Structure prediction request, 400 residues.
Amino acid sequence: MSEIFTGSFTQQEPIPDEAIDAAVEVMRHGRLHRYNVAEGEVGETALLEREFADQVGAKYCLAVASGGYALATALRAVGVTHGDRVLTNAFTLAPVPGSIAAVGATPIYVDVTEDLTIDLEDLAAKTGEAKVLMLSHMRGHLCDMDRLMEICNAAGIAVIEDCAHTMGAAWNGVPSGRHGAVGCYSCQTYKHVNSGEGGFLVTDDAEIAARAIMLSGSYMLFGRHLAAPDPEVFEQIKYETPNISGRMDNLRAAILRPQLRDLEAQVARWNERYRTLEDGVRGTPGLRVVERPAVETYVGSSFQFLLLDWAAERVQEVLRRCAARGVELKWFGGAEPVAFTSRYDSWRYAETPSLPNSDRILAGIVDMRVPLTFSLEDCAQIARIIRAEVGAVFQGKAAT
Prediction:
């Protein structure tokens, strides 16, 4: 009888006791608002910002209400305005082009490679079309960041890194989010630290940081930030920067601070699970594993493989057969968006270009979450199921 996986692909680990205790303490004193502190007290949000800045080696950090808010704030802070064009990945999720549209700009899509990273040749060809790149490290895959920065620096393009899937990752030893002008991170439940919603914005640019802090609703309380520029930087921009309140509250900051201290250990646990899945499906006929470069330090919180050049109905049959055995897979080749999964031609608030190279790759991407509630044996079982069902469909395809 075929084995069935009975675990949940959406169940996260519980919040650590230390974080629960910190959150309860905030609730007991009631000072949840980001600037509501007692005499001589430093708020949880300010402490979190300083700690995260130190963790990634940034001068400045702003904790905000969501990863999407961080992206839109970064765009505004670097000067993107209504009618501007912003380069971004064709392979990403809706909040990335959504943040571009939210500031009145237009996304210009760049192709994806078979390694699931931005196509640097296509990027180089499109550098004349925009002065900002919102680079999505989609599903945790880092491109050659040294080469990307060479291309963008030569063209005068400011890079905003969407690190929603790469908190804890690095390229050539440089933390994700620290190559470009701004790095943006998510603390949503399915990311690497969990506050339900939340995010970070980091930068070494004092003016960008000051504008972001003013945008986040600091009023004139920017002196209470620990990871902010000197007050004189705000003097230049405080009267001309609108308030779009979105700085993180003290409750969520209290939940996150202990989790960030444990991030390195959590990354090691994710990668054990990722490697178990990778080893289990490698060599399956018709299935391509996405190999990771030696200089990439990745976080295996999700797992992708490619069924390149398969007919759509064959890919859908793999998904159906795996689902019948308890394995939930997502596909980026569908004509209609499903749950969190959508593609560039689903976002009809922007012009849909013709991207045949990306279409071919998106049609082959199969994706799954890897929650830390999975054991290594769970991952081995999932890999056996995927291997068996891909193999069965592939053999049927080969026979036709």
Observations:
- The first strand starts at residue 60 and ends at 64.
- The chain has a mean pLDDT of 95.
- The CA atoms of residues 216 and 245 lie 5 Å apart.
- The chain has two domains: 17-261, 263-399.
